[in-house]
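Can't paste images in this forum, so I'm doing it all in text. The chain is below; anyone willing to post the predicted structure tokens underneath?
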Amino acid sequence: MCSIFSSTSKTKFLELVDLNQSRGKFSYSYAGYKNKRFKVIKKEFGLFDKSIVTEDLDLYIGHCQAPTGGLDKNFERVHPSQIDNQFLYHNGILKPEFLKKSEINYNGWDTFYLNYVLMKGFQELKNVEGSFACLFIRNNSVYFFRNSLCPLFIEHTKEDDIHLSSVRFNQSFSIDPGLVYKIFGDNYKIEYVTNFEDVNKVYTTGGKNE
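Text version of the structure:
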């Protein structure tokens, strides 16, 4: 279990750190988006250190990790996964039996696998088995999406502040699964980009898809 949280407000971002911290205490990362440029500011093991949130940014991005592949302290598996100019924050877990069939060398990290799939486009998400809610950066553009097995909540205020969180918070609502949105497009607004087929349906107690 991990958490993704992001906000255009520093004050709200710090609140979201507290709200999401319990979902992942093994490692954390902190990144920012300013003047249409993305940068990773800090990656570390342990609890999120709020004292590092000092710079004024257009968008604050955080991730707390509870790894599903063991507790090996490997910085290469602290979010975000990076492939060239792609960065991926992932909450969820891809099915081990699905990954075993893959021809992709994902180095035992399902987030890297998902990032590799996204190199081919958002439509390729229909072939991924497992749960995922993601914040994704490509060419300094910021996207977010989820499938039906993983939560992601949003609030878009009248003041045009944007808040995202893996944990529900006051005034937030769940984004619809299978839809891809972009933050900070040409008009610094939330923009719908595309959709993908969500093949991962909620399982019944009998172990079959509904």
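Confidence is low (pLDDT under 50) at residues 203-210. DSSP finds three helices and 13 strands in the chain.
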